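Entry, Tuesday afternoon. Goal for today is a structural model of the target with zinc ion bound, before we commit to ordering more compound. Inputs were pasted exactly as handed over by J.K., no edits. I checked the ligand SMILES twice against the vendor sheet because last time a stereocentre got dropped in transcription.
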Amino acid sequence: MGHKTLCEWRRNEIPFELKALRKIVKKPKFVCGKCARSANDKQYLCQPLRLKGKEE
Ligand SMILES: [Zn+2]
């Protein structure tokens, strides 16, 4: 799957990438300000915002 953001995932791809998805959304630290998706690494989001703590 490479470094494609979650925001770019297509609905029909999700069932095939469930394992990867579970890892990505486990204990999320970031949320996408545009798509409202969450991830534990900002590289997976197109417009990452920190969920906790101060902004960078
Ligand atoms: Zn996004």
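Residues 7, 32, 34-35, 37, 45-47 surround zinc ion (CB under 6 Å).
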